[in-house]
Amino acid sequence: MKKILIGIMAASLFFCACSGENGTDGRDGKDAEINIDSLANVLREEITGSLWDSLYAKPYIDSVYNTLFDNTFASKWMDSVRNALLDSLKESDYDSLYTKLYDSVYNDIYSQNIIRSLDGFIYHAKENINGAFANQYPLMYKGFTDEEGTEYVPLSVAIRNLCQTSVKTPCNYKKIMVQAWIPGFTDTASVTSAVNPNATIKTNPKFTFDKEALSKLTNSEKAQYEVRAYALENDHQILFYSSSTPVTIHPMQLFGSEYKGVKNFSWWYGVWITPNMDSIPKILTELAHMLPDSTLKVYQKYSADTSIEQSSRRVVSAIFNLLQKRGIKYVQNESIGSVGQKIQYPIETLREKEGICIETSTLFASILEAAGFQPFLVLIPSHSFVGWRVNKKSDTLDFIETTLIGNPKATAADAFNSGIKKYSDEVKAGTFTSGASELIEIEAVRKFGILPNDF
Hints:
The radius of gyration is 37 Å and the shape is elongated. The chain has 15 helices and 16 strands. The strands form 5 sheets. A 5-stranded mixed β-sheet has the order 2-8-7-4-5. A 4-stranded antiparallel β-sheet has the order 15-14-13-16. A 3-stranded antiparallel β-sheet has the order 1-3-6. The relative contact order is 0.08. It is an alpha+beta fold.
């Protein structure tokens, strides 16, 4: 309380009271003036240490006055000033003074107590965000939980309630809100929860990435996770934790590395199969004009054919011829499936008129899916091509080598034969059994929840 003595003595400079024997001598305090802001500032600056800890509830404010006065105005030469101040507090101005002091000081004290009892830290922050998967991380990492069952990818924020309950210091649970975002790339994710005394919880804000911002990225870009944590008390949001954590955002074309343990990781090529891209309606219209009666039939028999299987080949042949006429060149590349490989989207392949094997495959599969086929992406060592069910729900597959659209001399029949031979060779070599090769059913990919990155 010695520190408070100095503060109140300084505050007394703002009190006007003089010694005398009439109504102006300070006995009745009628001429005493109180500077509320100055008094509040003194209280705010001087009430520290154990006093902060003691002020948990409104009733304690009443006892503060007596304690301050008893210690500060003990000297006789201050008696008149003390009496003037006490008299003024007893009159009608007391209510307004009390209210102002309560609002100005008690709220500050309460906020400081909240800030001291709560803490936060970054439990986990993914250092690299691959734009191709960014909005589907909750699905990709659905099974990734810590020992307490908390999801933590890509960002998890831990909140601690440091208050320990005792007889003298009662503690309650604290309601909190955590907000997180990446400036320029996401919306603001918000999570509310409650944390008990002497306990820690982990929150997992799930923000949404801006597809337009991601699509504009041509190179990796440094950014920041911004995190703010608030206590929700008395209709107020009291900030008690903030942080900025670095993160690198990679372009949507990058098939970037992810954590080990992601289920069906190769299924994520499905984001590059985009049946809803802008060019699809025009392609399907053009395709229909290449077929009997200018009608696109999928898993239906044309009158000139003897089976649905034959009609399916007729449609796939037309797709091959259509893309071949577009003049799309095949660019040889041996890095299929490698980490860090850039894969352009079908709309980019159409625009650039060239593509590596995975790009011609995703383009072809996109058209098949849009038309209503049940396509497969076929991955074999250092290469990819496309297959499809010959009839709806049939276990029999047909295949086509999509890179041959870049060979003006190749026919659709050549592409069928090449695709079938490559598949048969890998079956004989046992690579599908060993896992070196894969058949990725796009229908299963969609049912799993993986969505196309249409943009």
